[in-house]
Structures are given as structure tokens and as C-alpha cells.
Design brief:
Length: 437
């Protein structure tokens, strides 16, 4: 019988205090390397997230001909060969666990005059890629793979001539779908417009602007026109990832006597849904030292423990906090009253079925605390907590959320805990510094 690795998280005996530097934003780290590889001059990237997902992007861009020099764990210099300088890879491109790497590169490579094949880990191989492949194919891309070209491995073939610009009405608000089409649209024969039901995060549009590429926004529609070249900036400073800050926002809110300062957190308004929801629950979070760097807003966040109460939110805010739902669910478990989360069906096609994962793990740690629907959760706050062993599902956001639940509650034993390396390798060390291990 296989022995499963575990990590025990003990309840905190005192409030958490101090200052934390938040690791670089994962979404922006991916794009900083990818877009820098389209220029022809060196780009100095600082506060890069040195985690497995982002390193998958680094490996892929190297295989495509870019030079990536690592000056330190969080500092890179990337030099490309110009907008049309990507080269046919000599090997299969491994996206690992990273949906961002795969989906954005499908868009970037669809117009290229060469063949590229992608693979990934077991989790990524189960995730649906049809939502990107279908519109790219409508532009003239040739992409083949398993399950009628919707699952890895996927091979991108050289198209017959240029891709065609088009207007695409996306059925889902997805930054990855939007980004893939905008990147493909840079090489198309006319304008490409993506219309979303609700505006998704806009890191791609902001970073393209830093590279001299104009996008036009009209309501929930974004348009890009063919691009002749990009003007790479000399430097990019990646702000801290609000998705990583989210765990400490919740922990400090829940544990009495806590007050922490989270430094250099990205507060792009398309990502700050968690701040809105926690504020609606009664959290005490204050922004200080607000600034803008590389087109991205950043601030320090001062978090003081507060008594939380339940709230209700739905699909309109979901694109602004989809990755934070597991840890928001943890906050809801400790709040007074019920929290109702609706329109969260996207969670069923993440690294794992996160709706079911939340329901199953909460049922073990707080029996009777959660009801899961097809795209919803109802969490009953104040349910009696107990210590139990629960799986991480090899999902980094589930593992970290469960650790926060255990530290703020009765403790927890997490099975297969090392998946946090995907986005936050220092997470357990940071938690241990607060006394939660």
C-alpha cells in the first residue's frame, strides 16, 4: 500500500503579527517572461514568482528560442528575438500543472510557421482546452489532440497563411481564453475582438500596453489589431500576488489578537474581489502606500482581526475572485451565520473539482457545515470544528486553504501537501513562523 506524505498543521495559540513580503503575482510573472520573449532587447524582471507553474513558462520560452538568465530566485533577464523570432522547439513543450502556460501559448503559437506539441501533468491533462482551441480554430489555427482536440497532448501545426481576425462572443469570462485570442490576434490579418459576459482580469491588456501594443476596450469587449513589433521595456517589477496574500488576509482576520502588514500586494481592480467580499463580511483591512508600477496598482494591506459574519455573492464578481473561493470558504466557516456563494461552476474544472473538494473536506473537519450545488456553496458559519486528515487533491489552493482552516481552528493533517510549490513554495515556512506547524 502506498504511503501518503502528510503535513500536520496545529492550531495557533496566539495572534499573528508582523510584516510579510508577498511573493510575485503568478499571472503577471507568466506574462512578463512570455511577452519579454517577443521583444529584441533585454528585460530585467524583479519579484518574479519562482514557483513550479511560472518555471514551466520559463522552460517553454527557452525551448522557443528566448534567452532567460536567472540572476537570483526572483530576478531574471529575458531577451527575445523579436515578434517573429520564436523558433520551432526541438522537444515537446511541458506545461506541467500550468493552465496559464498552456492556454496562452496555444494562442501565441497558433499563428507561427512551425509545429509545437504540448504535454502536461496528470491534472492538466484532464482540464478542458476546447474553450481555447475552438475560437483559435475559427481564426484558422490548426490544433489537434485527444478528445476531439480538447485534451492534452495537443499539437499546434503551422496555419495556411495568416490567422483571420474575428469577433468572438465568449460564453465564459476567462482571462486565459481572452489572452490566448489577443495574442493570436497580434499576428492576424485584421482586428480581433473578444466579448465577455463579465470583464475578466486584464493583466494581458496592461502588460501589452507596457510593450507598446494598444488594445481598445468597449464595455466588456477588448479589441487588438495586427502588430508589427513590440517595444520591450527595460524592466518589469512584478507586484505581490493577491491570491497568495489571500491566505494571510483570512488568517489574520480570524485569529484574535492578530495584526499584520502585507507588503506590495497587487490591487488591480479585476483581482480585488476578495477584498470586497471580506469587507462585506466585516473584515478590517486598510490599504496604505498605494502606487502604480508597470501599469499595475499595488499597495500595502494592514489586516486586523475582526468578527466576521456571513454574506452572499454570485457570478458577477466571480471572475475577480475565482481562485480565492477555497480560502473565502474558510472565512465563511468561522463567520456568524450563513455564506451563500453562487455562479461558481468554473471551480469544477480547476486543478480539481474545487466545489466538491470544499464540500468533502469541510464535511470531515466541520460535519454539516456545507451544502454544494451544481455551481454553488452554502456554508454554515460557526459549525463545530474537529481535527481530521484530509486530501489536498494535489491542488495548491486547496492545500493552503486547508492549512489556514487548521491553523485558525482545531488543526488538520493534509495529505500530499507539497503541491503548494506550484504557486507558493514558502507557504508552510511562513505559516510555521506564525506558530501553525
Amino acid at each position: 500500500m502506498e504511503q501518503v506524505e502528510t503535513k500536520e498543521i496545529r492550531p495557533l495559540r496566539h495572534g499573528v503579527k508582523g510584516r510579510l513580503h508577498i511573493p510575485g503575482d503568478k499571472s503577471i510573472s507568466h506574462r512578463s517572461v512570455m511577452f519579454s520573449a517577443l521583444g529584441s532587447t533585454p528585460v530585467h524582471i524583479t519579484n518574479f514568482l519562482h514557483a513550479a507553474d511560472c518555471l514551466s513558462t520559463v522552460a517553454c520560452m527557452r525551448a522557443l528560442g528566448a534567452t532567460v538568465e536567472e540572476l537570483g530566485a526572483t530576478e531574471l533577464v529575458v531577451t527575445g528575438n523579436g515578434l517573429h523570432g520564436l523558433r520551432e522547439p526541438a522537444c515537446v513543450l511541458d506545461a506541467g500543472n500550468s493552465g496559464t502556460t498552456l492556454r496562452l501559448l496555444l494562442g501565441l503559437l497558433a499563428p507561427q510557421p512551425f509545429l509545437a506539441t504540448f504535454t502536461g501533468d496528470a491534472s492538466l491533462s484532464r482540464r478542458p482546452m476546447g474553450r481555447v482551441v475552438k475560437p483559435l480554430s475559427a481564426m484558422g489555427a490548426k490544433i489537434v489532440g485527444r478528445a476531439q482536440n480538447t485534451l492534452l497532448p495537443l499539437t499546434v501545426l503551422a496555419p495556411d497563411g495568416k490567422l483571420h481576425g474575428m469577433r468572438y462572443e465568449s460564453p465564459v469570462a476567462s482571462a486565459q481564453v481572452k489572452s490566448a485570442l489577443l495574442l493570436a490576434g497580434m499576428f492576424a490579418d485584421g482586428a480581433t475582438t473578444v466579448v465577455e459576459p463579465v470583464t475578466s482580469r486584464d493583466h494581458t491588456e496592461r502588460m501589452l500596453e507596457a510593450f507598446g501594443v494598444v488594445t481598445e476596450k468597449d464595455g466588456t469587449a477588448v479589441t487588438i489589431r495586427p502588430v508589427a513589433e513590440v517595444q520591450a521595456p527595460a524592466a518589469i517589477e512584478v507586484p505581490g500576488d493577491i491570491s497568495s496574500a489571500a491566505y494571510w488576509l483570512v488568517l489574520a482576520s480570524l485569529v484574535p489578537g492578530s495584526q499584520i502588514v502585507l507588503e506590495n500586494v497587487g490591487v488591480n481592480e479585476t483581482r480585488t474581489g476578495i477584498l470586497d467580499v471580506l469587507a462585506a463580511m466585516g473584515a478590517d483591512i486598510v490599504r496604505t502606500n498605494e502606487r502604480v508600477s508597470g501599469g499595475e496598482a499595488a499597495a500595502d494591506l494592514v489586516v486586523t482581526a475582526a468578527k466576521l459574519h456571513g454574506t452572499t455573492f454570485g457570478k458577477d464578481i466571480m471572475p475577480r475572485l475565482i481562485d480565492e473561493i477555497p480560502v473565502i470558504a474558510v472565512a465563511a466557516l468561522f463567520a456568524e451565520g450563513d455564506t451563500v456563494i453562487m455562479g461558481a461552476g468554473e471551480l469544477r474544472v480547476k486543478e480539481t473539482d474545487r466545489l466538491q473538494a470544499i464540500a468533502d473536506t469541510f464535511s470531515a473537519l466541520a460535519p454539516g457545515s456545507v451544502e454544494a450545488g451544481a455551481d454553488s456553496l452554502v456554508i454554515h458559519g460557526g459549525t463545530q470544528l474537529q481535527r481530521a486528515a484530509v486530501p489536498s487533491y494535489d491542488d495548491h489552493r486547496m492545500a493552503m486553504s486547508l492549512a489556514i482552516l487548521g491553523a485558525a481552528g482545531a488543526g488538520v493533517i493534509i495529505e500530499r501537501p507539497d503541491c503548494v510549490r506550484i504557486s507558493y513554495p514558502e507557504f508552510y515556512d511562513t505559516l510555521a513562523g506564525f506558530g501553525g506547524e
